[in-house]
Amino acid sequence: MPNAELINTDPIVSQNFFLEIDGSVVSILSSVSGLDIEMEVVTMEQAGANGKVQVVKTLGKSNKAPDLSLVRMAPPDMTQDKLWGWFNDIRDKGILLSDRTNNRKSGSIVMYDSTNAEIARFNFTNGWPSKISTDQLSVESNDPVKETITLTVESLARVK
């Protein structure tokens, strides 16, 4: 008979997603993907006893950093939008090689439940928006226009 105490909490059901930069909400999100926390694996082959090949897997130099894909409703005025401002600043001025903190920012993807309680937080470091894609437009649709932002990050960690 299974132990009834194995599942004693409700599953995570996130109702709201936000992008925070430096502790301030930059954008409300409708979906997020790429929250992959992965370690680099190195595979080696070596000859063992009697010349039999052995495969050894071990931890590599660093953890893999994913690209985050953030979907949100397109802002009505992109000139007043912080994310568009950040993207345009990088596109127009670039990222200085001499100053790695220039235009790279650290922040969080924060998830809230239906009672607006924070239920999960993924912190990233040295991120920057490398792409903004606008959904296909059609006169036959009543759907709101969405944007997909690719956020390139150097590290990602779930902290809550």
Kindly describe this structure.
The two termini are 32 Å apart. It is extended, with a radius of gyration of 21 Å. The chain has one helix and ten strands, in the order E-E-E-E-E-E-H-E-E-E-E. 12% of the residues are buried. A hairpin with a 2-residue loop joins strand 1 (16-21) and strand 2. It has 160 residues and is mostly beta strands. The protein has one helix at 82-93, and strands at 16-21, 24-29, 31-33, 38-47, 53-64, 67-73, 105-112, 118-134, 146-152, 155-158. The strands form two sheets. Strands 1, 2, 3, 6, 7, 8, 9 and 10 form an eight-stranded antiparallel beta sheet that branches. A two-stranded antiparallel sheet has the order 4-5. It has one domain (16-158): Pnp Oxidase, Chain A (Roll), CATH 2.30.110. Helix content is 8%, strand content 50%.
Shape category: extended
Pattern of helices and strands = EEEEEEHEEEE
Main beta sheet: 8 strands, antiparallel
| Unreliable parts | none
**Beta-strand content bin:** over 45%
Distinct helical segment count: 1
First-to-last CA distance: 32 Å
* CATH architecture heading: Roll
Assign the CATH class.
Answer: Mainly Beta
Radius of gyration, Cα only, in angstroms? 21 Å
The number of domains is 1
Classify the secondary structure makeup into a structural class: mainly beta
Count of distinct strands: 10
The CATH topology is given as: Pnp Oxidase, Chain A
The amount of helix comes to: under 10%
Residue-averaged pLDDT:
86
